[in-house]
Design brief:
about 220 residues, alpha/beta, TIM Barrel, two-stranded antiparallel sheet, 7 helices, about 35% helix
Length: about 220
Amino acid sequence: MTPLQIKVCGVTNIKDARACAELGADMIGFNFYPQSPRYLEPITVRRIIEAISPGICAVGVFVDANAERVRNTAEATGIRCVQLHGNASADTCSELAREFRVIRAFSTDPHFRPEEVSSFSNCDVLVDAYHRDLRGGTGLTCDWLAARTTRALARFLVLSGGLTKQNVGQAIATVAPDAVDVCSGVESAPGVKHQGALEDFFTAVRAACSSENAFAAS
């Protein structure tokens, strides 16, 4: 069984990035959406990436960005994985997937249909909560049942949306994702990670995985 991966999104500084790395994060997300309180300039992201282990997947988060902007930002920062929210078409994702690992993000709004992800077979899929104005980091919980249905249609599923130490175990048991993504659930303020909350979240994820493995082996 492939170990469940942990992604910490909305990291804005070297201290928090190193804390995530020391706890064993598999992915760290950096926000390039200008309207986000966690937005960073590419030069800042490059400095953070250079300060952490190259074994950690640095993820650039974009909203309604065209392929040219994604490429330019990737070149400036050194990221090799891009997470695309908003209007990223299947054609754009396929184009970028020839150069990067692409995570196509979907929100579980009232119009979401899990079968939509079938058009993005060359991408990983992230399922997040819906918010009218924000893209990620809302603290809202996504529709776990829709996410579970999506799991069967995605090559790799990242579960996001309002995850905390209190609910991540139930989320893992319900959805069985390949990775969980946390942002506001481990913050003391937007873009500022709380060391204790990070530690508690990682502990909760690992406890849930141990329980799942024990159940599978019984």
